[in-house]
Design goal:
CATH architecture of the largest domain in chain B: Orthogonal Bundle
Largest sheet of chain A: 10 strands, mixed
Distance between the termini of chain A: 76 Å
CATH superfamily of the largest domain in chain B: MetI-like
Mean pLDDT of chain B: 90
Low-confidence stretches of chain A: 19-25
Number of helices of chain A: 11
Oligomer: heterodimer
Strand content of chain B: under 5%
Radius of gyration of chain A: 23 Å
Radius of gyration of chain B: 26 Å
Largest sheet of chain B: 2 strands, antiparallel
Structural class of chain A: alpha/beta
Strand order of the largest sheet of chain B: 1-2
Low-confidence stretches of chain B: none
Distance between the termini of chain B: 24 Å
Helix content of chain B: over 70%
């Protein structure tokens, strides 16, 4: 009995020591980038619930010489577009990339308590999130575009004035059509056009139904707003619609940093911006996008 | 005895006959229970075999599992066993320590000690374990205390089960008669010696079997720690691969099987332990 209790008290002591080491302590660096270089790994949060952006590689096994903490996953155990982008950041910093896997709502909630360094998780830059998180430059985009019925003769966003336009109910597309910038929640920099006067909004269950209604020859509306990938797919399917040039707004997907971090993130943010800009320029992001999405989502929407 | 050796075979006594009959009855009962278990298990397997039953106009398709997914992800989910066991074992030690302290506090005649003990038990038993895990993982950082997923999980599980187990310990401690204490005192033992040499050994005999139960139940509650996202035990692995590959049914059944087998093994050891401790009763 005595032994059991000695053992038990030992364990309690050990867990207390573990507790003390819990939060990346022991570092002498004054900013996050310095701390990362010093410890030799960057801890990236990403939720492995989203293929093809980020999901588990169940066949991969943890390398024995990894520096990653025991409760983090290694690059061998994860795969996806976000995972490859995160790896590129680690390579540019000359450190190993490790993945923390908290639930998505814990990442977007901010106040990370230094449990991880950065989120590379296809997070849309929104005004609400900007209050608690800092964002890098976007590494890819989901542009929203207007598609019009091919026989409508409309060739610009302004041409929608006084017309009926369709969108999926309760989507950001509907918010944009209603001119509800608060509901849209995007920073001004990613909104390129405002809705013309006198547009009647027709919300349908999903934006796919908008395209199908036009294809079926219905004339309740002449156009619909949705993501560029959906419109491209509709056109590829042979639907009689035309995509108007230029995005009306875009959801910018970027890396995020905690404003409440105990270490200064400024130098790390600058470094990540630099890495993303270089990857946009030398085509590495395009190549990754082609690999995981089979289309290029990394081109900045030009207005 | 002498009669037996002389005559070779003595007619068994009435009592012996009765005893033999009772043993036979018990053996038969156990065999039948075992056979029924086998049948139930086969039915369960059959329900998930994907076979089609046709009885005249009655048609029933049993559940078809994706065996390719199961084979591919078996080792990935199995890798979570270590974490599940680690958390359970660490937590049970934390819980035992706290439970013993709380139970001793409960027997104390010093009001503040008694109050601390009952306050702890009431507070912890009055709040959900799930909430406690999140509290230690997500809420404490706001106060500058940053626990890792494993430590937060072990702390919450340990505190929670400690509160429940303190009742078990208390029952064990109060099961030792007052006379034992008085006898020890009469022999000149100090209160500490009395506790260590007389009370605890007898109390633990009563407390250990229900503690085994708590340990088994804790291994299953360790699944809640997966909610932190930082502990990649059985449940976390099953949920993630199940969702990503749209095979929730297979993934959760696999995790369920691991927990069940783990429970069966632990139950076996617990019944052995119980039998060993019960020897003193005869």
């Amino acid at each position: 009995m005595k032994k059991i209790f000695t053992f038990a008290s030992l364990l309690v002591a050990v867990s207390l020591v573990l507790t003390a080491c819990g939060g990346g302590g022991g570092s002498t660096a004054s900013d996050l980038l310095g701390a990362i270089t010093e410890r030799g790994y960057i801890l990236v949060s990403t939720d492995p619930n989203y293929a093809p952006q980020s999901f588990l590689n169940t066949e991969g096994s943890r390398p024995s010489d990894t520096k990653c903490p025991s409760d983090a996953l290694t690059t061998a155990e994860m795969q996806g577009f976000d995972v490859d982008v995160a790896k590129a950041i680690g390579e540019a910093l000359g450190v190993e990339t490790c993945f923390a896997t908290p639930s998505w709502d814990a990442i977007t909630a901010g106040s990370w308590a230094d449990k991880w360094d950065v989120s590379v998780g296809s997070m849309t830059v929104t005004t609400a999130r900007q209050e608690i998180l800092d964002f890098s430059v976007p590494y890819y985009y989901t542009p929203a575009v207007v598609a019009v019925a091919a026989d409508s003769g409309i060739d610009s966003v302004e041409g929608l004035a006084g017309q009926a336009v369709c969108a999926g109910a309760a989507t950001t597309y509907e918010f944009w059509l209603n001119g509800d910038m608060e509901g849209l929640g995007l920073p001004e920099a990613s909104v390129y056009a405002s809705v013309p006067e006198g547009v009647t909004v027709v919300p349908l269950e999903t934006d796919q139904e908008c395209a199908q209604a036009i294809a079926a020859g219905r004339t309740d509306f002449v156009a619909y707003v949705t993501s560029e990938t959906v419109v491209d797919a509709n056109i590829a399917e042979g639907m009689p619609v035309v995509k108007l040039d230029g995005a009306v707004y875009s959801e910018d997907l970027a890396a995020a940093f905690d404003k409440g971090s105990s270490l200064d993130t400024a130098s790390l943010r600058a470094k990540v911006d630099e890495v993303f800009t270089a990857m946009h320029e030398d085509g590495r992001l395009t190549a990754l996008s082609m690999q995981w999405f089979e289309m290029d989502l990394t081109a900045a929407p030009n207005q | 005895m002498a009669v037996t050796t002389q005559q070779g075979k003595a007619p068994p006594s009435q009592a012996e006959l009765l005893y033999q009959a009772q043993l036979r009855k018990e053996r038969l009962f156990r065999a039948q229970v075992g056979a029924s278990w086998g049948v139930l298990f086969l039915i369960l397997i059959f329900l998930f075999s994907g076979q089609e039953i046709k009885l005249g106009s009655f048609q029933y398709q049993t559940i078809q599992l994706d065996s390719e997914f199961i084979l591919k992800n078996l080792s990935f989910i199995a890798k979570g066993l270590g974490q599940t066991l680690l958390i359970s074992v660490l937590s049970i030690f934390v819980a035992m320590t706290l439970a013993l302290l709380a139970a001793l506090g409960r027997l104390s005649t010093f009001p503040p000690i008694y109050a601390i003990s009952t306050f702890y038990v009431s507070l912890i038993r009055g709040t959900p374990l799930y909430l406690q895990i999140f509290f230690f993982f997500l809420a404490l950082p706001q106060l500058g205390i940053n626990l890792s997923g494993v430590v937060a999980g072990v702390t919450a599980l340990g505190l929670n089960y400690g509160a429940y187990m303190s009742e078990t310990f208390r029952a064990g401690l109060s099961s030792v008669g007052k006379g034992q204490r008085e006898a020890a005192m009469a022999l000149g033992m100090t209160p500490g010696q009395t506790m260590k040499r007389v009370i605890l050994p007898q109390a633990l005999r009563f407390a250990i079997p229900p503690m085994g139960n708590d340990f088994i139940s804790m291994t299953k509650d360790s699944a809640l720690v997966s909610a932190t996202g930082f502990v990649h035990e059985l449940m976390w692995r099953a949920v993630k691969v199940g969702r990503a590959q749209f095979n929730n049914l297979e993934a959760l059944i696999m995790a369920a099987m691991f927990y069940w087998v783990l429970t069966l093994i632990l139950t076996y050891f617990q019944s052995k332990l119980e039998a060993r401790l019960a020897k003193g009763d005869r």
